[in-house]
Design a protein that fits this description.
This protein is an alpha/beta fold. The protein is built from 57 helices and 57 strands. Strands 35, 36, 39, 40, 41, 42, 43, 44, 45, 46, 47 and 48 form a twelve-stranded mixed β-sheet that branches. It is elongated.
Length: 1954
Amino acid sequence: MGNSYAGQLKATRFEEVLHDSIEASLRSNNLVPRPVFSQLYLEAEQQLSSLEGGSRVDNEEEEEEGEGGPEPNGAPNPYQLPPAPEGCCTTEGFCQAGKDLRLVSISSEPIDVPAGFLLVGAKSPSLQDHLLVCAVDKRFLPDDNGHNALLGFSGNCVGCGKKGFCYFTDFSNHINLRLTTQPKKQKHLKYYLVRNAQGTLTKGPLICWKGSEFRSRPASAGICSSSLFPPLESSGSLAAFPSESVPGTNPGVLMGAQQAGPASDHPSLTSALGPAVFNGKDSPKHQQLAKNSLSALPRPSALGILSNSGPPKKRHKGWSPESPSAADGTCPQGGGNRAKYESAGVSCVPQAGLVGPASVSFPVVASGEPVSVPDNLLKICEAKPVIFKGHGNFPYLCGNLSDVVVSPLLYTCYQNSQSISRAYEQYGASTIQPISEEMQLLLTVYYLVQLAADQVPLMEDLEQIFLRSWRESHLTEIRQYQQAPAQPHPPVPSTAAPVTPAQLPWLAGLAASSCNDSVHVIECAYSLAEGLSEMFRLLIEGKLAKTNYVVIICACRNAAIDSCIAVTGKYQARILSESLLSPAEYQREVHYELVTGKVDSLGAFFSTLCPEGDIDILLDKFHQENQGHVSSARTAASVTQAAGLDGSRIPVCTSCHLEPRGVRPFQLAVAQKLLSHVCSIADSSSQNLDLGSFEKVDFLICIPPSEVTYQQTLFHVWHSGVLLELGLEKEPMTKQRVEQYVLKLDAEAQTKFKAFLQNSFQNPHTLFVLIHDHAHWDLVSSAVHNLYSQSDPPAGLVDRLLNCREVKEAPNIVTLHVTSFPYALQTQHTLISPYNEIHWPVSYSNGVDLYHENKKYFGLSEFIESTLSGHSLPLLRYDSSFEAMVTALGKRFPRLHSAVIRTFVLVQHYAAAMMAVSGLPQMKNHTSVETLEITQNLLNAPKQCPCGHGLMVLLRVPCSPLAAVAYERLAHVRARLALEDHFEIILGNPSSGITVGKHFVKQLKMWQKIEDAEWRPQTYLELEGLPCILIFSGMDPHGESLPRSLRYCDLRLINSSCLVRTALEQELGLAAYFVSSEIPLEKGAKNEALESDGEKPSSTDNEDEEPGTEVCFEAGSTSEKRSPVKRERSCSHDSASSSLSSKASSSALCSETLAQVPGPPQGEQARSPLPCGPAEEAKATGEKQWLRASQGATVISRHGPVLTPQPDCSLRTSQRSLQVSVTSSSQLSSLGATSMSTAPATGTLVLQASQCSVTKACRQPPTVFLPKLVYDVLLSTDSSGLPKAASLLPAPSVMWTSSFRPLLSKTMTSTEQSLYYRQWTVPRPSHMDYGNRAEGRVDSFHPRRLLLSGPPQIGKTGAYLQFLSILSRMLVRLTEVDVYDEEEINISLREESDWHYLQLSDPWPDLELFQKMPFDYIIHDPKYEDASLICAHHQSIKSEDRGLSRKPEELYVRRQTARMRLSKYAAYNTYHHCEQCHQYMGFHPRYQLYESTLHAFAFSYSMLGEEIQLHFIIPKSKEHHFVFSQPGGQLESMRLPLVTDKSHEYIKSPTFTPTTGRHEHGLFNLYHAMDGASHLHVLVVKEYEMAIYKKYWPNHIMLVLPSIFNSAGVGAAHFLIKELSYHNLELERNRQEELGIKPQDIWPFIVISDDSCVMWNVVDVDCAGERSREFSWSERNVSLKHIMQHIEASPNITRYALLGLRKWASKTRGGQVREPFSRCHVHDFIILNVDLTQNVQYNQNRFTCDDVDFNLRVHSAGLLLCRFNRFSVMKKQIAVGGHRSFHITSKVSDSSAAVVPAQYICAPDSKHTFLAAPAQLLLEKFLQYHSQRFFPLSLKNHSHPVLSVDCYLNLGSQISVCYVSSRPHSLNISCSDLMFSGLLLYLCDSFVGASFLKKFHFLKGATLCVICQDRNSLRQTVVRLELEDEWQFRLRDEFQTANAKEDRPLFFLTGRHI
């Protein structure tokens, strides 16, 4: 039907409307057709309703938007394509004949276009970034007004040449358009195609179909607009500056759609609710989201001109009774050429309802008659006016649209500000009204009125004004809701507006009346169209020449206002219109101007400026006159000068020696922080990183595609030695090998990255660190990367590689993002947890220097500080004469982009300056003072250095084509002036390396002492000392470091309209610098700038972890005292100062004397920026106050009385400098040359040029020249004192969630800033994080992703390379442990061979043989080196055999350890996580934390005289080891196996591990040690530690000791373990006896193991013969399972009471392992037979040596102890817990003095300070260190030991003891021939009687010590044992432990043998 009128040339409007209506009703689901006649009548009233959104609504558009159904969630009705003929090509982009139709493919091919036909571009929804080329009869296409197109279609296929398609349906089938709706030419033919200057076919203007400019859409289901509601106009958030909403500034907008500008026909650009939204099509899912999220929202009213607020005549589909008019809330789509000027609105809008009010903005509907833009507007006005849509409807523009720019930014700002009050609604504050439209407009006028002539309006400023105004007007209501977050709801229209619409124009006019006509208000009676027409008329007539802003107000319609604001000021309009270009468009525009020759007019104009004629003619003339003469003369001069300098005894320049590279304290601190963050990821319970499973570290550094950065990173990696340290490479390294570890993100990156992923997959035990350096670059989502031009492969590459599934899921890849500008990675959707951010630390806290460094970082905040310090020449400057010339030329050449003009002017200035310095002084008038200064210093610096070192000038030209032009021009001028050998010009392009002339390469090699003939500089750092101009191009710097010889940073050409925080900081980061802190700065900044942060309020808090990217915007304390904007910089851009500035180069002249004269040491100290003490600090602050007080002077002496001994001299100097400042530059240069040698002697003026530029550069940062606009933004501050630059949008790829947000605070640390951005910014749809998460879900953070941020050039590369080193060291350390490695002691005291077990090859001890062996009483365990020897009768020990006792604190320190690699059979602490033992540990992700139950277990014990109640904590998974009365019932016993069991699947003996203070470090994970075998392991813990042990070991059985043992020692644990085990054995025997099992068959053994046993070894012995002394042996690591099963399989094992292992030592001698078994003491890891030892108890009171005591008791009871010598246990050194957890302290809290062992006992009833420690511990410790007080005769008297009855107490290494048991039938040594030197009776029981003691003989004077629980029992014991018969006692010989009475002290009585 769409082609039924194909043949008619003249179609009437009626037929057209009728046709559309019938067709729509046929296709519609709705039975009621659209009212046809109302459309016609409305048209008669010139409403252009098809465009304007009155009442006519185009049903086709509903269908095109895919919402056919009446329900809100109706799915689209897809159009069914007819099947293609058999064998045809059906590939999209190709016609059915298989020919390519895509514009990109055939743009250069010749296409035959018949007469009367035009080439147009068809758009297919499925080929989002391609246009298909078609030839269409132009009669069927519309004119400029969207009319007069014939209704049918006639077209040809340009691919196969097929002609005569009469139906668009057929044609669309032929060209394979995949459509979801019926094919319509209006919908799918989008653009005219035109050929550009190169003859390439490119996309031209939009085809202006009827209604395509603003098509009204009926609201579907009466509530929500059917399109994806935020379309073109609604820039989803207010961009920071107008530039922000530009598609290009937000990467990810359809670049393809904008090559020629127009982008407005792509709602997908703006309403990207999902990635698949293109050309108005979207998936049903996303439509539903849009509808649901808005379904309940009211819409603002946008009434038509007819004020028809009732329903239309018939209720057409989708009209809602609630809405005032069908046109409400409709969504415009651009059309006509003007669409390209809408691009400001093409900022991508985030998902509705998720991000806050910013996203809910309803665009304005055009209405009224069209306004024609006059021809020649640009020519007359000299700038394109920028029109900002305001409130209400905006008229349709036609005519000369290329001369205006229309932007919706202001409209969006208004909408966002209206939504402020909704933020409070959730708190019930529904009475709060938003700011009224009238008030908004009035505030806007006020804002514009107060802007200076050189200021540009900023939307952020306006937002803040609205916010402040609204807050003030509702102060009382909102005070309680001050911190409420913004909510995503549109506003409720205001009910009570303070300003009425009628008053508005008058008030606006009144406000504007005071501004000298810079703001002009136009009031319209009928519509905005009148006002716009009036404005255009005034512009043409030149009546608005002084006007910068025109405010047009139409306030006639029912209390609603229409408004718009036009920026007509030439300066402002140019900046704003250029700011709306994306970087790509900006480059394209510049390229186009250069290619088409538009810039020639500029060159022609320059040639007319010079009175002497064209510069080139002058140059040629100069060249011919001076050819040959200049160069030789100059060379000779420089040589003689150098010789002269040497002759006058000035030392040869040493500055070329590069400093040794080392890791600075800061870098080490950051590396350690990174390491601790990685460890905290590993330690978290989420099990995301198992550090214990990695053996080594590997890495890959990803960097942007800059050749210089690449070479620089290679250099860092090579010289850091990290590859050798990580063991990845061996010496000698080659460059090719190093290149494996650095990845340049260019077209070839993918292959290298795949290899990295493959490598990580194949090496699961290597930890790979993926370092993403310069991480703020290329954050484009890979989903939209294909929208970028094909010439830019890296777009989206970071997302494709670093965010790929393999990287995210690999458990062995940690990603570290490193950047100076982290803001784009700190959004609501970021993948990086705030806990995983590491910020560069501040260097001082509260004035204390935290990291002493000899260099101080000089970054942005210090640069800003330097401008506020009152010095005449700050480090940040702008060039006013340059700016003035640019402005003037901008008016003359309005069609040229200002970047082109600025570049040409600056290059001209440099050329003129070179000529002026080279002998054409007349050229001085054609350059600026600043440029002349730069050039003079560039040319003169090499003459001041004997080696010819010069300085670098950085000339930043972001646009590559302009950089090439600048390079060619400057090189040409240099060549004509014969300066080729004086300085180099280098074109720095990211994509290519550095090219330096041979002459300069030779110089560099000489300075750097390089022998390699092939060497060429590859990084800018290698250009140290080279005099050069570096033209640095590329839209963004990519992290290139610059050498110390950088002296000037010329940023006058940076894109000043791009005001984004990242962009600004990035450009200024080029100048960041390290300054030697020992030397005073020569700048105004001085040390004050370096120190000042310490005391200024803006410095970061006490957090040592905060660095300062935020410091970038701290303006220092002086900023509060005056506004820097109003203060004119003294004489910095004044021509009178030309001489001063050109020669002095912004240094304080007078400081030179000081720099040259080496001051006295105290002077040096005072100059140091580190206050050495209070006095120094006072001096420093006093000096600063003095400086600040005198800031008014034009030139201030930098010398305070502290800094120089000659204040009067410095005063003369400063006066002299004033005189100098008026002299001409030529005089100055001669003065500079002559005064060099005399100055130091006389103390007069010394110019800075007197030193080598490299030496000077070390102590002063470069001078930075900025565009005026940027300078103003950096130096202006907001109300809080924070520079305005900080409140800009942080990065182009993000947007604010709401204009209702607090300002950044001046005192915010980096962490706080990060949290601020995480709350208030969201990524744009083009950002790679866009689809990451719904806000607030913590699990969307990637667990193995870290972010390191720090200021530019501060040393982050060195820090992360150091991090790799220490990470590697830690991993190696994690796989290693320190184990005790001590030889056995007292070996020489062993018995003769007949006491040895001689069956060397026996695997198990032979019981008969073993029983015949004597027991070896001597302790051989090295930990008892300080213990008393136990004597047997057969020993004769010389006193010198025993060493001197050690001090108690040395015991731990001096024990020898060896570092051992953990084997696969090691026991682990809580830090070990691996897949195999997750379940064992109870941390398996698939399981809940293991539930456990608490069970009481009681048994009575006669010796304690009470029932013992223990508690078991038994995890559900371990309940099978126990017997319960019923499931979940009373615990009855612990299951024990049978002696006869032979299974190899489990370990029979339950293992008990007593532990205290080692919940983290105890080695309780026996999974690997047991080799996965089933075993029963019980942790024995004190009651107060139960909870913490349970937290760390949720799947372990715990035995909880009674609370009375909380302060007990290890003896109590051993005692209870043994008693419990025996009781359990009895229970099990009873239980299993009922099952028919004999009691003796129940397994009676338990293992008692220390918590530090880490690995077990076995010795393999190869005996040559049975009795042979020749044998070889080797030791290997085995599992504990192997050892236990071997021992448990021993024959007759139940006959042994105690079994143990040897302690490992590296120096084990063959003799020690030769005999397989010994009958001796066993320690640390024992296997105890609880049955045999039933009557032998551990002493529950003991803290030390309880195992020796028990061993002696067991032996004396006649039981067998066997040590397996061929098994050994390794014990790990654990520095916490265990016996070290007992601290002996005074009970008096304020006593800080240490308590020494001599104070552990005291006389009873004395006033001795009581100690807070158990009595038994005090006793044992006292006896260990001071037993000689009790046993003086025993000291070193080993042949006469102390007799110790029934116990072994350690009396120190110099006293020997003899142990005897008083039990009947016990085995004791024969004592008949021994004379004892002392007797120790410790808590002796009834077995000890007087007759027993009488068997022993004592020396005369031998001493006795009786120890009892109380004084009463002491006396009873003396009486019972008849001690007074042989022993003499005195009253004063009674003592007690230093305990209070309630702590039950022990009492001693000592006496002498009579």
